[in-house]
Amino acid sequence: MKPTKPLVAITGASSGIGKATAKLFAEKGYPVLLMARRVQLLDEMDIGHKITAKVDVTDIEQIRQAIKKAEAVYGPVDLLINNAGIMPMDKYVDQSLKDKYDTLDVNIKGVVNGMDCVLKDMNARQHGTIINLSSVAGRWTSIDHALYNGAKFAVNAITEQARRENAENNVRFTLIEPGMVDTNLLDTTTNQEVLDAYLINKNRLKGGLIAKDIADAILYTYELPQHISIKELLITHTQQKI
Predict the structure, then answer these.
(1) pLDDT digit string (tens) for 78-110?
(2) Residue 33 belongs to a domain
(3) Nearest to residue 190, comparing CAs of 98, 110, 88?
(4) Does some domain include residue 207?
(5) Hey, is 175 helix, strand or coil?
(6) What is the DSSP string of 18-45?
(7) How far, in Å, CA of 195 to CA of 200, rounded?
(8) Domain containing residue 202: CATH number
(9) Positive or negative CA dihedral for 36, 41, 43, 49?
(10) Residue 124, exposed/middle/buried by CB under 10 A (0-12, 13-18, 19+)?
């Protein structure tokens, strides 16, 4: 039976917060479009109504085609969750130019591409929600995070102004800013000294939050009536000081 709830599209859905969010929304009866580079992990997820797509978020055409495929089955995307991201940490002077560019491309360009694929249609329908995953790193800078800070500061600014410009069309924008979450985001950090220093703080919090904590917040935010817009959620473990 075709689900009655609207289509939810999630980038970076193969692991971490994206995977937890996909599972939660599917459990609640939403059809989900799952996008990630590791499509085999998406295909292995045993959840309800889903469409999977191999997507590199830096390529807008790949996102566009995935959305077109899913909308042909389940109708228009009512919620886009821009979750895909990477966090290669290092001191600015030591970080490779490739890591710098990749951080900007995935974390900023990926968000812009996702928004551009759905926003005009949401405005035309006078309905829709875009949730962009930022970070506490979008609020303040910290050691070894220069490019990641810059990318998340940009996501915050883009989201805030886009919200203001599209509010009259009944489209909601929410920034989710997690602190330390026990995911594989650290996989892109190769400097062991930097990684060890970060893990000291993470271990102090027993890993920090879990991905489902953030998924629960996303679901709560989305399921509020459309006239209620939570503009920003900064979420950390209670014992995380920054």
Answers:
(1) 999 999 999 999 999 999 999 999 999 999 999
(2) yes
(3) 88
(4) yes
(5) strand
(6) HHHHHHHHHHTT--EEEEES-HHHHHT-
(7) 9
(8) 3.40.50.720
(9) negative
(10) exposed
Is 1 part of a structural domain of the chain? no
The one catalytic residue among 30, 74, 148, 222: 148
Nearest Cα neighbor of 9 from 20, 22, 19 is 22
DSSP string, 123-148: HHHT-EEEEEE--GGGTS--TT-HHH
Q: Report pLDDT digits (tens) over 150-188.
A: 999 999 999 999 999 999 999 999 999 999 898 877 778
CA angle 181, 185, 186 (to 5 degrees): 105
Domain count, the chain: 1
Closest CA to 6 of 123, 103, 127: 127
What is the distance between the alpha carbons of residues 30 and 65, in angstroms, rounded to a whole number? 20
pTM higher than 0.85, yes or no?
yes
Which residues span the domain enclosing 169? 7-235
143 residue type, one letter: I
Helical segments of the chain, H only: 16-27, 39-43, 60-74, 97-104, 110-125, 146-166, 192-204, 211-223
* Annotation marks residue 148 as catalytic: yes
Integer CA distances (angstroms), 75 to 5, 44, 49, 70, 126, in order: 10, 24, 13, 7, 15
Task: Give a yes or no: residue 182 inside a domain.
Answer: yes
Tokens describing residue 18: 């994206």
